[in-house]
Amino acid sequence: MENSEHYAIVDISINDKHINIINTDSDNESNKKENKKNSALTTVIKLQRDRGERDYIGFATLPEQVHRKSVKRGFDFTLMVVGESGLGKSTLINSLFLGDLYRNRTIPDVHDRLEKTTTIEKKTMEIEERGVRLRLTIVDTPGFGDAINCEDSWRVCSAYVDDQFRQYFTDESGLNRRHMQDNRVHCCLYFVPPWAHSLRQVDVEMMRRLHRKVNIVVVIAKADSLTVMEVKKLKARILQDLEDYQIQVYQFPECDSDEDEEFKQQDRELKAAVPFAVVAADTVMEIGGRRVRGRQYPWGIVDVENPRHSDFTKLRTMLISTHMQDLKDVTQDVHYENFRAQCISQISQHALRERGKLKRDSMGNNNEEVFTDTDRLLLQKDEEIRRMQDMLTQMQEKLKASDKKHDSIIDV
Protein backbone atom coordinates (compact mmCIF):
# COMPACT_ATOMS: atom_id res chain seq x y z
CA MET A 1 0.00 0.00 0.00
CA GLU A 2 1.30 3.35 -0.97
CA ASN A 3 2.27 5.56 1.97
CA SER A 4 0.96 9.08 1.56
CA GLU A 5 3.12 11.45 3.54
CA HIS A 6 3.51 15.18 2.99
CA TYR A 7 6.82 16.92 3.47
CA ALA A 8 6.95 20.62 4.35
CA ILE A 9 10.25 22.46 4.11
CA VAL A 10 10.56 25.56 6.31
CA ASP A 11 13.41 27.97 5.71
CA ILE A 12 14.38 29.86 8.91
CA SER A 13 17.07 32.52 8.86
CA ILE A 14 18.86 33.06 12.17
CA ASN A 15 21.88 35.37 12.25
CA ASP A 16 22.21 35.13 8.46
CA LYS A 17 22.32 31.32 8.60
CA HIS A 18 19.68 29.36 6.74
CA ILE A 19 18.30 26.27 8.40
CA ASN A 20 16.04 23.90 6.47
CA ILE A 21 13.58 22.05 8.68
CA ILE A 22 11.79 19.11 7.07
CA ASN A 23 8.57 18.15 8.74
CA THR A 24 6.68 14.97 7.86
CA ASP A 25 3.04 15.84 7.93
CA SER A 26 0.73 12.92 8.25
CA ASP A 27 -2.55 13.07 10.04
CA ASN A 28 -0.76 13.97 13.33
CA GLU A 29 -2.27 17.12 14.85
CA SER A 30 0.91 17.95 16.81
CA ASN A 31 2.89 18.29 13.60
CA LYS A 32 0.40 20.79 12.27
CA LYS A 33 0.70 22.90 15.45
CA GLU A 34 4.47 22.72 15.26
CA ASN A 35 4.38 23.87 11.65
CA LYS A 36 2.26 26.87 12.59
CA LYS A 37 4.65 27.72 15.45
CA ASN A 38 7.69 27.49 13.18
CA SER A 39 5.95 29.62 10.60
CA ALA A 40 5.17 32.29 13.20
CA LEU A 41 8.76 32.19 14.48
CA THR A 42 10.05 32.58 10.94
CA THR A 43 7.85 35.61 10.42
CA VAL A 44 8.99 37.27 13.67
CA ILE A 45 12.67 36.64 13.00
CA LYS A 46 12.37 37.96 9.45
CA LEU A 47 10.61 41.11 10.70
CA GLN A 48 13.33 41.68 13.31
CA ARG A 49 16.01 41.19 10.70
CA ASP A 50 14.29 43.59 8.34
CA ARG A 51 14.09 46.25 11.11
CA GLY A 52 17.70 45.70 12.12
CA GLU A 53 16.77 44.49 15.63
CA ARG A 54 18.50 41.75 17.60
CA ASP A 55 16.75 38.83 19.23
CA TYR A 56 14.81 39.56 22.43
CA ILE A 57 16.70 38.37 25.54
CA GLY A 58 14.47 39.53 28.40
CA PHE A 59 16.59 41.70 30.70
CA ALA A 60 14.37 44.69 29.92
CA THR A 61 12.09 43.43 32.70
CA LEU A 62 14.75 44.07 35.38
CA PRO A 63 13.18 47.38 36.50
CA GLU A 64 9.87 45.58 36.97
CA GLN A 65 11.57 42.87 39.03
CA VAL A 66 13.27 45.48 41.24
CA HIS A 67 9.98 47.33 41.60
CA ARG A 68 8.10 44.22 42.70
CA LYS A 69 10.82 43.28 45.18
CA SER A 70 11.03 46.80 46.62
CA VAL A 71 7.26 47.11 46.98
CA LYS A 72 7.09 43.75 48.72
CA ARG A 73 9.87 44.71 51.15
CA GLY A 74 8.59 48.25 51.79
CA PHE A 75 10.51 51.45 52.41
CA ASP A 76 11.94 53.19 55.48
CA PHE A 77 12.27 56.92 56.00
CA THR A 78 13.34 58.78 59.14
CA LEU A 79 12.64 62.49 59.51
CA MET A 80 13.98 64.63 62.35
CA VAL A 81 12.27 67.91 63.24
CA VAL A 82 14.23 70.49 65.22
CA GLY A 83 12.91 73.78 66.53
CA GLU A 84 11.67 75.48 69.62
CA SER A 85 8.18 74.97 70.97
CA GLY A 86 5.28 76.79 69.38
CA LEU A 87 6.54 76.84 65.78
CA GLY A 88 3.99 74.31 64.50
CA LYS A 89 6.27 71.31 64.01
CA SER A 90 3.62 68.77 64.98
CA THR A 91 1.00 70.47 62.82
CA LEU A 92 3.31 70.46 59.83
CA ILE A 93 4.08 66.73 60.20
CA ASN A 94 0.38 65.92 60.48
CA SER A 95 -0.32 68.02 57.39
CA LEU A 96 2.47 66.44 55.36
CA PHE A 97 1.50 62.84 56.03
CA LEU A 98 -2.25 63.29 56.62
CA GLY A 99 -2.19 61.69 60.04
CA ASP A 100 -2.19 62.48 63.73
CA LEU A 101 1.07 61.38 65.28
CA TYR A 102 0.67 63.45 68.45
CA ARG A 103 -2.79 62.52 69.63
CA ASN A 104 -1.45 61.14 72.92
CA ARG A 105 0.96 63.96 73.64
CA THR A 106 0.79 65.65 77.03
CA ILE A 107 1.75 69.29 77.48
CA PRO A 108 4.12 69.80 80.46
CA ASP A 109 3.23 72.31 83.14
CA VAL A 110 5.22 75.38 84.13
CA HIS A 111 7.44 73.63 86.69
CA ASP A 112 8.46 70.97 84.18
CA ARG A 113 9.23 73.56 81.54
CA LEU A 114 11.56 75.48 83.86
CA GLU A 115 13.88 72.49 84.10
CA LYS A 116 13.18 70.98 80.68
CA THR A 117 16.12 69.99 78.51
CA THR A 118 16.33 68.72 74.96
CA THR A 119 15.05 65.16 74.66
CA ILE A 120 14.36 62.69 71.86
CA GLU A 121 10.90 61.33 71.08
CA LYS A 122 10.38 58.76 68.34
CA LYS A 123 7.06 58.05 66.69
CA THR A 124 6.63 55.42 63.99
CA MET A 125 3.70 54.87 61.68
CA GLU A 126 2.97 52.63 58.70
CA ILE A 127 1.59 54.38 55.61
CA GLU A 128 0.30 52.57 52.55
CA GLU A 129 -0.50 54.28 49.27
CA ARG A 130 -1.39 52.42 46.06
CA GLY A 131 0.12 49.22 47.38
CA VAL A 132 3.41 50.86 48.46
CA ARG A 133 4.20 50.66 52.18
CA LEU A 134 6.27 53.30 53.94
CA ARG A 135 7.57 52.90 57.48
CA LEU A 136 7.82 56.50 58.62
CA THR A 137 9.75 57.46 61.75
CA ILE A 138 9.47 60.98 63.14
CA VAL A 139 12.21 62.04 65.56
CA ASP A 140 11.01 65.03 67.57
CA THR A 141 13.24 67.13 69.84
CA PRO A 142 11.02 68.70 72.50
CA GLY A 143 12.75 71.20 74.72
CA PHE A 144 15.15 72.46 72.07
CA GLY A 145 15.75 76.19 72.47
CA ASP A 146 13.34 76.50 75.40
CA ALA A 147 15.96 76.91 78.13
CA ILE A 148 17.74 80.15 79.01
CA ASN A 149 21.14 78.55 78.37
CA CYS A 150 20.93 76.70 75.04
CA GLU A 151 24.61 76.10 74.42
CA ASP A 152 24.28 72.33 74.90
CA SER A 153 21.00 71.88 73.01
CA TRP A 154 22.80 70.42 70.01
CA ARG A 155 24.45 67.58 71.94
CA VAL A 156 21.37 65.37 72.21
CA CYS A 157 20.51 65.67 68.50
CA SER A 158 24.08 65.10 67.35
CA ALA A 159 24.49 62.14 69.69
CA TYR A 160 21.27 60.56 68.41
CA VAL A 161 22.41 60.80 64.77
CA ASP A 162 25.77 59.27 65.68
CA ASP A 163 24.10 56.48 67.65
CA GLN A 164 21.97 55.50 64.67
CA PHE A 165 25.02 55.48 62.39
CA ARG A 166 26.91 53.42 64.93
CA GLN A 167 24.06 50.92 65.27
CA TYR A 168 23.82 50.54 61.50
CA PHE A 169 27.61 50.09 61.27
CA THR A 170 27.45 47.40 63.94
CA ASP A 171 24.60 45.59 62.18
CA GLU A 172 26.38 45.88 58.85
CA SER A 173 29.54 44.37 60.35
CA GLY A 174 27.65 41.49 61.95
CA LEU A 175 26.97 38.00 60.68
CA ASN A 176 23.21 38.25 60.09
CA ARG A 177 22.62 41.20 57.73
CA ARG A 178 19.47 39.97 56.06
CA HIS A 179 17.01 41.74 58.34
CA MET A 180 18.86 45.00 58.93
CA GLN A 181 16.67 47.92 59.94
CA ASP A 182 17.59 51.37 58.72
CA ASN A 183 16.95 53.89 61.50
CA ARG A 184 19.43 56.47 60.23
CA VAL A 185 18.15 60.04 60.02
CA HIS A 186 17.62 60.80 56.33
CA CYS A 187 16.46 64.39 56.66
CA CYS A 188 16.32 67.12 59.31
CA LEU A 189 13.69 69.84 59.06
CA TYR A 190 15.14 72.80 60.93
CA PHE A 191 12.51 75.38 61.90
CA VAL A 192 13.44 79.05 61.99
CA PRO A 193 11.00 81.36 63.81
CA PRO A 194 9.37 84.08 61.67
CA TRP A 195 10.20 86.83 64.17
CA ALA A 196 13.95 86.30 63.71
CA HIS A 197 15.59 88.67 61.25
CA SER A 198 18.20 86.03 60.36
CA LEU A 199 19.74 82.89 61.81
CA ARG A 200 20.27 83.12 65.56
CA GLN A 201 23.37 81.91 67.33
CA VAL A 202 21.63 78.77 68.54
CA ASP A 203 20.55 78.04 64.95
CA VAL A 204 24.07 78.50 63.61
CA GLU A 205 25.59 76.33 66.33
CA MET A 206 23.04 73.58 65.83
CA MET A 207 23.38 73.41 62.06
CA ARG A 208 27.17 73.57 62.21
CA ARG A 209 27.10 70.46 64.40
CA LEU A 210 24.72 68.58 62.11
CA HIS A 211 25.37 69.67 58.54
CA ARG A 212 28.04 66.99 57.93
CA LYS A 213 25.92 64.24 59.45
CA VAL A 214 22.42 64.73 58.06
CA ASN A 215 20.56 66.44 55.22
CA ILE A 216 19.30 69.78 56.59
CA VAL A 217 16.27 71.46 55.07
CA VAL A 218 15.60 74.92 56.50
CA VAL A 219 11.96 75.82 57.07
CA ILE A 220 10.56 79.25 58.00
CA ALA A 221 7.68 78.46 60.33
CA LYS A 222 4.36 80.32 60.47
CA ALA A 223 5.04 82.27 57.30
CA ASP A 224 1.49 83.67 57.34
CA SER A 225 2.68 86.14 59.99
CA LEU A 226 4.99 87.77 57.44
CA THR A 227 4.29 89.85 54.36
CA VAL A 228 5.56 88.84 50.94
CA MET A 229 8.48 91.28 51.13
CA GLU A 230 9.36 90.17 54.66
CA VAL A 231 9.47 86.54 53.56
CA LYS A 232 11.70 87.44 50.64
CA LYS A 233 14.12 89.43 52.84
CA LEU A 234 14.25 86.72 55.50
CA LYS A 235 15.02 84.07 52.89
CA ALA A 236 17.86 86.17 51.49
CA ARG A 237 19.34 86.76 54.96
CA ILE A 238 19.17 83.08 55.85
CA LEU A 239 20.91 82.11 52.61
CA GLN A 240 23.59 84.72 53.25
CA ASP A 241 24.11 83.45 56.81
CA LEU A 242 24.44 79.89 55.55
CA GLU A 243 27.13 81.02 53.13
CA ASP A 244 28.95 83.15 55.69
CA TYR A 245 29.08 80.41 58.30
CA GLN A 246 29.83 77.74 55.64
CA ILE A 247 26.87 75.59 56.57
CA GLN A 248 26.03 72.96 53.98
CA VAL A 249 22.32 72.31 53.68
CA TYR A 250 20.74 69.76 51.36
CA GLN A 251 21.60 70.47 47.73
CA PHE A 252 19.18 69.46 45.01
CA PRO A 253 20.73 67.20 42.37
CA GLU A 254 21.01 68.52 38.86
CA CYS A 255 18.42 67.35 36.35
CA ASP A 256 19.47 64.95 33.64
CA SER A 257 19.49 66.24 30.11
CA ASP A 258 16.87 63.69 29.04
CA GLU A 259 14.28 64.91 31.55
CA ASP A 260 11.17 66.56 30.18
CA GLU A 261 10.70 70.32 30.40
CA GLU A 262 7.91 70.06 32.96
CA PHE A 263 10.16 68.26 35.45
CA LYS A 264 12.99 70.76 34.86
CA GLN A 265 10.62 73.65 35.51
CA GLN A 266 9.43 72.00 38.72
CA ASP A 267 13.02 71.49 39.83
CA ARG A 268 13.82 75.17 39.20
CA GLU A 269 10.82 76.23 41.26
CA LEU A 270 11.81 73.99 44.15
CA LYS A 271 15.36 75.33 44.17
CA ALA A 272 14.11 78.92 44.08
CA ALA A 273 11.81 78.32 47.08
CA VAL A 274 14.66 77.38 49.47
CA PRO A 275 14.35 77.99 52.42
CA PHE A 276 10.71 76.98 52.45
CA ALA A 277 8.30 79.43 54.09
CA VAL A 278 5.42 77.20 55.19
CA VAL A 279 2.04 77.44 56.83
CA ALA A 280 0.58 74.28 58.35
CA ALA A 281 -2.97 73.48 59.41
CA ASP A 282 -4.79 70.39 60.61
CA THR A 283 -8.23 71.91 60.13
CA VAL A 284 -10.20 70.98 57.02
CA MET A 285 -12.68 73.55 55.78
CA GLU A 286 -14.73 74.09 52.66
CA ILE A 287 -13.86 76.91 50.26
CA GLY A 288 -15.74 77.37 46.99
CA GLY A 289 -17.19 73.89 47.08
CA ARG A 290 -13.89 72.11 47.78
CA ARG A 291 -12.37 70.90 51.00
CA VAL A 292 -8.95 72.32 51.86
CA ARG A 293 -6.60 72.51 54.82
CA GLY A 294 -6.40 76.05 56.01
CA ARG A 295 -6.44 78.59 58.83
CA GLN A 296 -9.32 80.93 59.48
CA TYR A 297 -8.50 84.58 60.18
CA PRO A 298 -10.77 87.63 60.56
CA TRP A 299 -9.57 88.93 57.22
CA GLY A 300 -9.83 85.62 55.34
CA ILE A 301 -8.63 82.03 55.01
CA VAL A 302 -5.06 80.87 54.43
CA ASP A 303 -4.98 77.82 52.16
CA VAL A 304 -1.81 75.89 53.03
CA GLU A 305 -1.76 74.24 49.59
CA ASN A 306 -2.04 77.55 47.73
CA PRO A 307 1.46 78.42 46.41
CA ARG A 308 0.68 82.13 46.80
CA HIS A 309 0.07 81.65 50.53
CA SER A 310 2.75 79.11 51.44
CA ASP A 311 5.55 76.87 50.20
CA PHE A 312 3.88 73.89 51.84
CA THR A 313 3.11 72.15 48.53
CA LYS A 314 6.68 72.60 47.31
CA LEU A 315 8.08 71.22 50.55
CA ARG A 316 5.79 68.20 50.37
CA THR A 317 6.66 67.63 46.72
CA MET A 318 10.38 67.78 47.41
CA LEU A 319 10.29 65.74 50.60
CA ILE A 320 7.96 62.97 49.44
CA SER A 321 7.28 62.94 45.71
CA THR A 322 10.58 63.84 44.02
CA HIS A 323 13.59 63.73 46.36
CA MET A 324 12.87 61.20 49.10
CA GLN A 325 15.06 58.55 47.49
CA ASP A 326 17.81 61.08 46.83
CA LEU A 327 17.77 62.06 50.52
CA LYS A 328 18.30 58.41 51.39
CA ASP A 329 21.05 58.04 48.79
CA VAL A 330 22.93 61.09 50.07
CA THR A 331 22.62 59.74 53.61
CA GLN A 332 24.06 56.41 52.50
CA ASP A 333 26.73 57.60 50.06
CA VAL A 334 27.95 60.77 51.81
CA HIS A 335 27.07 61.11 55.50
CA TYR A 336 27.17 57.44 56.47
CA GLU A 337 30.30 56.80 54.41
CA ASN A 338 32.07 59.65 56.22
CA PHE A 339 31.03 58.17 59.57
CA ARG A 340 32.08 54.70 58.43
CA ALA A 341 35.48 55.97 57.27
CA GLN A 342 36.01 57.62 60.67
CA CYS A 343 35.06 54.41 62.46
CA ILE A 344 37.42 52.33 60.33
CA SER A 345 40.20 54.88 60.87
CA GLN A 346 39.65 54.81 64.62
CA ILE A 347 39.60 51.01 64.62
CA SER A 348 42.85 50.95 62.63
CA GLN A 349 44.51 53.46 64.93
CA HIS A 350 43.36 51.51 67.97
CA ALA A 351 44.70 48.30 66.44
CA LEU A 352 48.04 49.99 65.72
CA ARG A 353 48.22 51.29 69.29
CA GLU A 354 47.42 47.86 70.69
CA ARG A 355 50.00 46.27 68.42
CA GLY A 356 52.61 48.79 69.50
CA LYS A 357 51.71 48.22 73.13
CA LEU A 358 52.02 44.46 72.72
CA LYS A 359 55.33 44.93 70.97
CA ARG A 360 56.61 47.17 73.73
CA ASP A 361 55.38 44.71 76.33
CA SER A 362 57.07 41.84 74.56
CA MET A 363 60.27 43.85 74.27
CA GLY A 364 59.99 44.67 77.98
CA ASN A 365 59.58 41.01 78.82
CA ASN A 366 62.61 40.12 76.71
CA ASN A 367 64.63 42.83 78.39
CA GLU A 368 63.54 41.48 81.72
CA GLU A 369 64.66 38.02 80.73
CA VAL A 370 68.01 39.33 79.49
CA PHE A 371 68.45 41.33 82.67
CA THR A 372 67.75 38.24 84.75
CA ASP A 373 70.34 36.22 82.84
CA THR A 374 72.86 39.00 83.27
CA ASP A 375 72.18 39.11 86.97
CA ARG A 376 72.67 35.39 87.14
CA LEU A 377 76.00 35.64 85.36
CA LEU A 378 77.05 38.48 87.64
CA LEU A 379 76.10 36.47 90.68
CA GLN A 380 78.15 33.55 89.42
CA LYS A 381 81.12 35.82 88.82
CA ASP A 382 80.70 37.38 92.26
CA GLU A 383 80.64 33.90 93.77
CA GLU A 384 83.79 32.96 91.94
CA ILE A 385 85.49 36.17 93.06
CA ARG A 386 84.50 35.48 96.65
CA ARG A 387 85.91 31.98 96.44
CA MET A 388 89.10 33.32 94.95
CA GLN A 389 89.29 35.97 97.65
CA ASP A 390 88.76 33.33 100.29
CA MET A 391 91.48 31.22 98.75
CA LEU A 392 93.80 34.21 98.67
CA THR A 393 92.98 35.00 102.28
CA GLN A 394 93.75 31.43 103.29
CA MET A 395 96.99 31.49 101.33
CA GLN A 396 98.01 34.75 102.95
CA GLU A 397 97.23 33.37 106.40
CA LYS A 398 99.32 30.25 105.64
CA LEU A 399 102.14 32.43 104.39
CA LYS A 400 102.00 34.54 107.53
CA ALA A 401 101.98 31.45 109.69
CA SER A 402 104.91 30.01 107.85
CA ASP A 403 106.78 33.28 108.10
CA LYS A 404 106.32 33.40 111.91
CA LYS A 405 107.50 29.81 112.26
CA HIS A 406 110.50 30.56 110.14
CA ASP A 407 111.34 33.62 112.20
CA SER A 408 111.11 31.67 115.45
CA ILE A 409 113.48 29.05 114.13
CA ILE A 410 115.99 31.66 113.13
CA ASP A 411 115.84 33.32 116.51
CA VAL A 412 116.65 30.05 118.18
Task: Please give a quick description of this structure.
The protein is about 50% helix and about 20% strand.
Biggest sheet strand line-up: 4-5-3-6-7-8
Largest sheet: 6 strands, mixed
CATH architecture of the largest domain: 3-Layer(aba) Sandwich
Please write the string of helix (H) and strand (E) elements: EEHHEHHEEHEHEHHEEEEHH
Q: How many extended strands?
A: 11
Separation, N- and C-terminal Cα atoms:
169 Å
Number of domains: 2
What is the fourth-level CATH superfamily of the largest domain? P-loop containing nucleotide triphosphate hydrolases
**CATH class group of the largest domain:** Alpha Beta
Shape: elongated
Q: What is CATH's topology name of the largest domain?
A: Rossmann fold
Radius of gyration of CA atoms, rounded to a whole number: 42 Å
Total helical elements: 10
Helix content: 40-55%
How does the helix and strand content classify structurally? alpha/beta
Give the amount of beta strand, in percent: 15-25%
The low-pLDDT segments are: 1-26, 367-371, 408-412
Average pLDDT, to the nearest integer?
79
GO molecular function, one term: GTP binding
Subcellular location: Cytoplasm
Keywords: Cell cycle, Cell division, Coiled coil, Cytoplasm, GTP-binding, Nucleotide-binding
Pfam families: Septin
